[in-house]
Amino acid sequence: MDRRWISNPDRLSAEYEKGVGEFVTFVRGSLDVQGLTKYPCNRCTNCEVHHIDSVRYHLLIYGFLKDYIHWTEHGEQSNPQVPLGFPIQDTPPCMNDQDDEMAKALRDAAGHAYDIGSSSDLLSDMRPPAEQARYDKLFEELHNPLYDDCMKFSALTFIVKLMNVKVLYKWSDRSFVALLKLLHEALPVGNRCPRTYYETRKLLCDVGLGYEHIDVCKHDCTLFYNEHKDDDVCPICGVSRYVWKKIPHKRLRYFPITPQLKRLYSSKHTARAMRWHKEQRLEEDGKLRHPADGEAWKKFDSLYPEFAGDPRSVRMGLASDGFNPFSHMSTSYSMWPVILIPYNLPPWLTMHRSNYLLSLLIPGPKSPGKDFDVFLRPLIEELKVLWDGVQSFDSYQQASFTLRASVIWTVSDFPAFAYLFGWSTQGKLACHICLEDTRYKSIRSKISYIGHRSFLEMSHSWRNSKEFDGRSERRAPPRNFSTADILSQLEAVGQSIPGKATTTAKRKRLPIELNWTKKSILFELPYWSTLLLRHNLDVMHIEKNVCDNILGTLLDIEGKSKDNGKAREDLKDMGIQSELWLQPHPVKGSLKPHASYVFTKDEAKLFCDYLIAVKLPDGYASNIDRCVTESNKLAGMKSHDCHVLLQKLLPPGILTC
Predict the structure, then answer these.
(1) Distance CA 195, CA 184 (A)
(2) How far apart are CA 396 and CA 266, in angstroms?
(3) For residue 275, which of 354, 347, 346, 341 has the smallest C-alpha distance?
(4) CA pair distance 177, 426, nearest whole angstrom
(5) Peptide bond into 347 cis (omega under 30)
(6) How far apart are CA 75 and CA 38, in angstroms?
(7) How far, in Å, CA of 612 to CA of 623, rounded?
């Protein structure tokens, strides 16, 4: 049987159509009872099973797999004794293992083939024509060699790997273009290597790696978006949109999340994993293994049973933090990514970075601050649409469905929390839980929050002690503010003008506004005000700060110890702990008596020797002994080091001393 038609690029030729007919005739002898078979087209690649009546259509539209010479998936023996028209080893030159992986990735992005019925119904695909044409082009690039007789790379694989190297080694755009030109000249004539960076990016955008550019006012007043997309000046501060010609002052990168969510359901593997929280999660009273075990998740389900009834409805957390994208930390620049984390997946997949959904990349050089809501606008508009639902396709169940999604809380450190929540975390009323009931005390050069004893039972002995702050504690715990209380307080907050322009007068908060700076844009989401838990603080940030302060005080590290001269003067002002007050000294001016909570030099050496001698399981933590200095101090500890030290090593280490 002559099978040279498989490599014929002209799918409309009589030779190709005849070969497809021979294949269909051959396959009819290996059908199951339902008439299903695997499709060897470039789109399905023998991975999907559909009805025999549609196979001819797929082979004519998408082409036959060029390396599928022996039809072993359709009942043929592995070593057929029939002439194939070309040697067995002559497989398509550009197809190899890496191209197989690329084909799988493209199938996940494009979605699997649909069973569209008999040949009389083969009029159109369920995917929009423009989108279908885009993926047809990608599959064509995947099966085209980089140049004639190339044995290792297809055009698409080469471009993807080249871009990976560019990002990995931080090549500049100019050096990358110079390399592309050199490669184009060095490769044989007729090669498919792109000549410009623009051509490379255009192809990668078709893969689904693109984003939208949204110009931003110089002072973060507004986005040139929707009704302002054609404006040349900021409608708030009047500053020009551009630095020069059509070059904007700032540009927001917006990655729509709807295509990213649809892609999770375009692969049958991830589509099945997105149902894990409902169908495979082990529920056990008193155990918190997944956010679905928490009260916030359960209350959300009870309030919105229609949303909760479909396990494919996506619940997400919104996380953001600033970072410096430059290698030299002396360069002051703060860029803020906004990432959405889908919680439908099992924990080991939820926290894998491949499943993070990057939605916004907020430009610097300074943090957005109180204008964070300005940058969140396009994301909030998309989340409103996703709450109502969009049409998508579930590759696991092979059926269309209405995809709905919601953000059930945020995750951030303390500064980012202030930007998202709208409550200033500085000043006398810094506590976002106690709000107006925050217990504070002004001391030297700072404010102290020392009302913790009010949470104890009224009969507790510590309430009567005056050694803590010089007085007994008789106050009841702060109130638990309900959503209605918070919304009532927000009604009194005046309208703030966004932006950091010097011409914009800074609005002073009225006493009735407490520490509120704004009403968060997140309240525009129809379900946000009903959430039980809206914001989460990143424990790793807080834990590292607490650990550094404790260790700095224990080891008396200069600049990090909280037991300094001002702290001793505060004790004297409050009239407590007189044995720790500063003592006059004829030479040094004052002398700080040694406190029982500070290690002596011998105790500090014993503690550091203990940390050096500790052996931890492989992968449990890094080598903490590398943080021990010659002067028996600790330096250079990472967040996880602080977690392990504070939770496991510090208590026995103190007892050792």
Answers:
(1) 7
(2) 8
(3) 346
(4) 48
(5) no
(6) 11
(7) 9
CA of residue 258 relative to chain centroid, distance = 14
Q: Are strands 314-320 and 405-412 parallel, antiparallel or unpaired?
A: parallel
Give 260-279 pLDDT, tens digit per residue. 999 889 888 889 999 999 98
> What is the mean pLDDT of the segment spanning 419-427?
90
Please name every residue paired with 590 in a beta bridge, in sequence order, or none if there are none: 584
Classify 75 as helix, strand or coil.
coil
Q: What is the pTM of this model?
A: 0.72
Q: Which residue has the tokens 């299903």?
A: 36
Alpha-carbon torsion 507, 508, 513, 514, what sign? Answer: positive
Separate counts of helices (H) and strands (E) for the chain: 21, 17
User: Residue 392 in 3-state DSSP?
Assistant: strand
| Residue 86 banded pLDDT, cuts 50, 70, 90 | very low
Residues in contact with 456: Cβ distance below 8 Å, sequence separation at least 6, in sequence order:
462, 463, 473
- Give the whole-angstrom CA distance, residue 42 versus residue 58: 9
Residue with tokens 């649409």: 385
Q: Is 253 helix (H, G, I), strand (E, B) or coil?
A: strand
Strand partners, 49: 38
Tens-place pLDDT, residues 36-52: 888 888 877 787 777 77
H/E run at residue 425: none
Q: Yes or no: say if 567 and 557 are a contact pair by the CB < 8 Å rule.
A: no
For residue 509, the tally of other CB atoms under 10 A from its CB is 15
Beta carbons of 183 and 193 less than 8 angstroms apart: yes
Q: Per-residue b/e over 404-422, b at no fewer than 16 CB within 10 Å?
A: bbbbbbbbbbeebbbbbbb
The pair of structure tokens assigned to 24 is 């269909």
- End-to-end Cα spacing for the chain: 85
* Cα–Cα distance, 413 to 341 (Å, whole number): 16
Helix, strand or coil, per DSSP, at residue 169: coil
Q: How far is CA 248 from CA 221, 253, 265, in A?
A: 14, 13, 37
Residue type, position 40, single letter: P
Q: H helices of 323-367, where?
A: 347-350
Identify the bridge partners of residue 446 per DSSP, sorted by sequence position: 443
The region, left, alpha or beta by phi > 0 then psi within -120 to 50, assigned to residue 648 is alpha
CA separation (Å) from 645 to 45, 620, 634, 637, 642? 52, 12, 11, 10, 5
Q: Round to whole Å and give the CA distance between 255 and 538.
A: 24
- What is the separation of C-alpha 52 from the centre of its chain, rounded to a whole number of angstroms? 42
Amino acid identity at 645 = L
